[in-house]
Specification:
The chain has 147 residues and is mainly alpha-helical. It has a single domain, classed as Winged helix-like DNA-binding domain superfamily/Winged helix DNA-binding domain (Arc Repressor Mutant, subunit A), CATH 1.10.10.10. 65% of the residues lie in helices and 12% in strands. A three-stranded antiparallel β-sheet has the order 1-3-2. Helix 2 crosses helix 5 and helix 3 crosses helix 4.
Length: 147
């Protein structure tokens, strides 16, 4: 069996551009169907808190990666809406933990349903193997890239 050809830098750049273009198309679809594309950061923060539990703003920022200030702004907006709350952190006196509220979980689930409805339109256009491979490649690339 032949050894697979090594990817080129140009090929990886093409993949990166395609992912960015894909992201902006998804954002446009969610804005048109659900009206919350500009809340992508809010959805990402809520998703992280629902999935991984309470965390500090700096930890959330490092995981994305975005600036701590950007993440703080999003968390402050979420708190103002009653979607998250800041609680004492037993490991640090000043850095509070951010915890999703019941209202935040409900909002996240509502947004997720809308995302799934939009994704269901396109799911039949791909095979499960194609989606799994694309997801794996994107996650591996994400994990390899240091910022």
């Amino acid at each position: 069996m032949k050894k697979p050809l090594q990817a080129t830098a140009e090929g990886v750049l093409d993949l990166s551009v395609a992912v960015i273009e894909f992201y902006f198309r998804i954002e446009a679809i969610t804005q048109a169907t659900a009206g919350f594309a500009q809340a992508g950061g809010e959805w990402g923060c809520l998703r992280s808190l629902v999935k991984d539990g309470p965390q500090t703003v700096p930890a959330m920022a490092r995981a994305r990666p975005v600036s701590r200030q950007h993440c703080q702004t999003i968390c402050n907006a979420l708190e103002a809406q009653g979607l998250v709350e800041f609680i004492d952190n037993p490991r640090h006196k000043k850095s509070k933990l951010v915890r999703v509220t019941r209202k935040g979980r409900d909002r996240f689930e509502s947004m997720k349903k809308q995302f799934l409805a939009a994704a269901a339109v396109y799911a039949p256009l791909f095979t499960a193997a194609e989606v799994a491979t694309a997801t794996d490649v994107c996650r591996r690339a994400r994990d390899m890239i240091e910022v």
